[in-house]
């Protein structure tokens, strides 16, 4: 297991040192959320009603933008060959990389969401719910996204392809993420959507590394 | 046959189904002819594969 | 002693067998669909709630069945590729994708045409429509992934992984879409099934469904034959290039 955490630490250090990637994702998130009121009209009531949906969808798109990097730089500089033949099972390698993506990209995006909520006139009571559901739901974004990143590693037009492959898989997370927020704000019971959201993320943590490792193994032969 | 006020919807639906199915069949037949033609072309030029007929599948390319 | 599927694993055997079967399967499909259409238009009474427009159901529902059956076939083929390493598994998966996608499109198109008179709008975010739409996206993903990888062996394995991920996620997607739907839109106008289905309506539906299934089998067989031929052509091209290369080298000796 120490190899696993070493790998997570290495990826996080790389993400911090390169820096630019996280900034790009956050900047993209900000720009998309800022553009939407311009397109939808500045009706504050409407905006505050659809704010959770906007924030979730923009978060998915921003996370998607950075998914290509998960395996790409390691593939280009050859470290992925070393990791494939190394002592750590490839499933744990892909899990470590997805976890690093979650910590370095998805969590910062989730933490930025309340700030963007101000732009959308989201009610203040919703902020804890928003951040909580995003923290619980985004592991699915990173771990399912790793599948798309691994599948398109050697494909042409990889970047565009990831979006087509991965976005349909995000549907459950999106639906239950928003259901959990509206349940927290409304009279409904919060537990069911929140538990299902957790279950989806846990399932993704199992499925994602398995499928991504299978895809990498095929391509690294 | 009187299909009521919404007949155009019914005909469009059935028409699209017929169009897509006929399109698929046409594509399949033309594609098959094209591959046969190319195979015959190779045969006429005397090009042969090294291995037997099993070599056509993806697996044996490994 | 070979099992049936093992014998089919030989492409030459498959080509011989499918060549003999194909005209019969295609003819059977045409006959069943023709009989089903006769039942649908001349025997089945108009629905007492929706009138004539319910006749769209006779092509809409079978298209949706084939859309799902096609994806299931791709997933089974993907399984066959990894577990049994069946040589025709990838041919089958590749051949089924465009046909399945076409029927998914038909299910969406006819559903939307049915929706306009029945619900007053071409599209509602009804649970079934939405999950069929997502199924369509999964088909597009499979086709797009395969078309962007040049190496045939690599493409076969990667699309198989995607197909298996898709089949795991599909029930979850379906479940979440159903959930989201009951939460946001209480089913008032959207309740489609209505009272229990009468046999004069059910029979044409099942007959056309069977006809579409046989049609799908025929198309899939033909597409598999085309794919096998395409791979032979590719192998011959490679052989020709290899021979030309060796002839260029030879005179120098």
Low-confidence stretches of chain C: 183-191
Number of strands of chain A: 0
Fraction in beta strands of chain A: under 5%
* Secondary-structure element pattern of chain C, one letter each: HHHHHHH
What's the structural blueprint in terms of helices and strands?
The complex is a heterotrimer of chains A (221), B (62) and C (253).
Chain A: H1 2-18, H2 20-40, H3 44-67, H4 69-76, H5 79-85, H6 90-119, H7 126-151, H8 158-166, H9 171-185, H10 191-220
Helix pairs in contact in A: 1-6, 2-3, 2-6, 3-6, 3-7, 3-8, 3-9, 6-7, 6-10, 7-8, 7-9, 7-10, 9-10
Chain B: H1 7-44
Chain C: H1 4-8, H2 11-43, H3 57-84, H4 89-119, H5 127-147, H6 152-184, H7 199-249
Helix pairs in contact in C: 2-7, 3-4, 3-5, 3-6, 3-7, 4-5, 4-7, 5-6
How would you describe what is shown here?
The complex is a heterotrimer of chains A (221), B (62) and C (253). Chain A has 10 helices and no strands. Chain A has 221 residues and is mostly helical. Chain B is mostly helical and 62 residues long. Helix content of chain B is 61%, strand content 0%. Chain B contains 1 helix and no strands. Chain B has one helix at 7-44. Chain C is built from 7 helices and no strands. The longest helix of chain C has 51 residues, at 199-249. The radius of gyration of chain C is 22 Å and the shape is globular. Classes of the chains: A mainly alpha (221), B mainly alpha (62), C mainly alpha (253). The interface between B and C is large, with 42 and 50 residues.
Keywords:
heterotrimer; A: 221 residues; mainly alpha; 85% helix; B: 62 residues; 1 helix; 0% strand
Summarize the structure.
The complex is a heterotrimer of chains A (221), B (62) and C (253). By secondary structure, chain A is mostly helical. Chain A has helices at 2-18, 20-40, 44-67, 69-76, 79-85, 90-119, 126-151, 158-166, 171-185, 191-220.
């Amino acid at each position: 297991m120490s190899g696993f955490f070493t790998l997570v630490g290495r990826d996080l250090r790389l993400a911090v040192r390169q820096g630019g990637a996280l900034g790009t994702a956050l900047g993209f998130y900000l720009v998309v959320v800022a553009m939407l009121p311009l397109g939808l009209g500045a009706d504050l009531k409407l905006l505050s009603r659809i704010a959770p949906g906007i924030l979730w969808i923009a978060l998915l798109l921003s996370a998607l933008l950075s998914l290509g990097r998960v395996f790409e730089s390691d593939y280009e500089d050859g470290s992925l060959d070393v990791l494939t033949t190394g002592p750590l099972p490839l499933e744990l390698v892909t899990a470590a990389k997805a976890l690093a993506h979650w910590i370095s990209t998805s969590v910062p995006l989730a933490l930025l969401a309340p700030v963007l909520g101000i732009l959308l006139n989201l009610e203040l009571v919703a902020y804890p719910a928003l951040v909580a559901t995003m923290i619980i739901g985004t592991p699915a974004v990173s771990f399912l996204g790793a599948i798309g990143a691994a599948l398109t590693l050697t494909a042409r037009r990889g970047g565009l392809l990831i979006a087509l492959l991965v976005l349909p898989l995000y549907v459950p997370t999106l639906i239950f993420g928003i259901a959990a927020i509206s349940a927290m704000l409304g009279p409904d019971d919060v537990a069911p959507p929140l538990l299902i959201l957790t279950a989806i993320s846990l399932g993704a943590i199992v499925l994602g590394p398995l499928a991504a490792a299978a895809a990498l193994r095929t391509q690294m032969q | 046959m009187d299909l009521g006020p919404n007949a155009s919807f019914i005909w469009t639906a059935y028409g699209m189904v017929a169009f897509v199915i006929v399109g698929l069949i046409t594509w399949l037949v033309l594609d098959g002819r094209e591959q046969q033609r190319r195979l015959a072309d190779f045969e006429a030029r005397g090009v042969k594969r090294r291995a037997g007929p099993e070599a056509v599948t993806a697996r044996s390319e490994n | 002693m070979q099992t049936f599927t093992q014998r089919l694993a030989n492409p030459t055997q498959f080509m011989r067998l499918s060549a003999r079967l194909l005209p019969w399967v295609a003819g059977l499909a045409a006959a069943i669909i023709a009989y089903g259409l006769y039942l649908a238009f001349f025997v089945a009474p108009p629905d007492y709630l929706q009138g004539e427009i319910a006749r769209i159901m006779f092509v809409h529902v079978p298209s949706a069945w084939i859309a799902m059956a096609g994806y299931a076939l791709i997933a089974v083929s993907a399984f066959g590729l990894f577990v049994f390493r069946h040589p025709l598994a990838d041919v089958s998966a590749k051949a089924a994708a465009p046909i399945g996608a076409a029927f998914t499109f038909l299910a969406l198109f006819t559903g939307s045409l049915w929706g306009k008179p029945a619900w007053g709008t071409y599209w509602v975010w009804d649970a079934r429509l939405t999950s069929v739409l997502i199924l369509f996206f999964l088909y597009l993903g499979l086709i797009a992934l395969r078309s962007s990888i040049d190496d045939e062996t690599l493409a076969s394995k990667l699309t198989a992984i995607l197909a298996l991920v898709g089949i795991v996620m599909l029930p979850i997607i379906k479940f979440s879409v159903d959930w989201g739907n009951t939460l946001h839109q209480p089913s008032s106008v959207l309740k489609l099934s209505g009272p229990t289905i009468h046999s004069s309506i059910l029979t044409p539906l099942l007959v056309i469904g069977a006809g579409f299934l046989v049609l799908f089998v025929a198309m899939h067989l033909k597409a598999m034959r085309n794919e096998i031929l395409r791979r032979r052509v590719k192998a011959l091209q490679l052989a020709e290039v290899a021979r030309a290369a060796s002839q260029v080298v030879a005179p120098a000796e």
